[in-house]
Amino acid sequence: MPSEPPSTAPSASASGGSRRTSGDPSGEVADPSPRSRPIVATLLGAEALLLAAAATYCALAASRGILDARFGTGMAIFLVLFALAAAMAARSILVKGRFGLGYGVTWQFFQALVGASLLRGGMYWQGGLALLLALAAFVLLTRLVRSTPLPQGSD
Q1: The dihedral of CA 68, 71, 77, 80: what is its sign?
Q2: Mean pLDDT rounded to a whole number for the chain
Q3: Which of 47, 79, 90, 121 could form a disulfide with 55 if both were Cys (CB 3.0 to 4.6 A apart)?
Q4: Three-class SS state of 2
């Protein structure tokens, strides 16, 4: 008796959701575009570098007396932590991890909020850059959600 070809119908996962398989035995959904992961990782990496640059500015401004020492130091530490998280998210995106998607999407919302505040405060090119990066990264991240494998849980 001939064997049936792999099904392309939706298959139920352990969590009750359905995912369309690509016909291979692993059941992974193909990336919407093979080049989208490096692009998203590059955008998150650029955001990490910009956060690190802002942290450096805050630390230097605090040491030179431009900013209050406690405020500048605290802001620098805060920005370094978020820069590290954005860099980890970029790495996670490249290896098809889930952390990068969740953190990346959430970060884009916060970044858009900050960008809108910058525009309202009269910092037009900074706010425009923040909004442009946030919008581009958000759109690309949402395209990757279906192609990132879910963690395999044992029942």
Answers
A1: negative
A2: 80
A3: 79
A4: coil
DSSP letters, 39-98, are HHHHHHHHHHHHHHHHHHHHHHHHHHTSS-HHHHHHHHHHHHHHHHHHHHHHHHHHTT-S
Cα 36–Cα 38–Cα 43 angle in degrees, nearest 5: 95
Asked if 128 and 115 touch (Cβ cutoff 8 Å), the reply is yes
CA distances to 18, 100, 134, 149 from 26, in Å? 15, 22, 33, 10
Query: For residue 69, what are its two tokens?
Result: 């020492």
Residue that has been written with the tokens 């970044």 in this structure: 111
How far is 51 from 107, CA to CA, in rounded Å?
12
Which DSSP letter does residue 4 get?
A: P
| pLDDT tens, residue by residue, 17-38 | 444 444 455 555 566 666 788 9
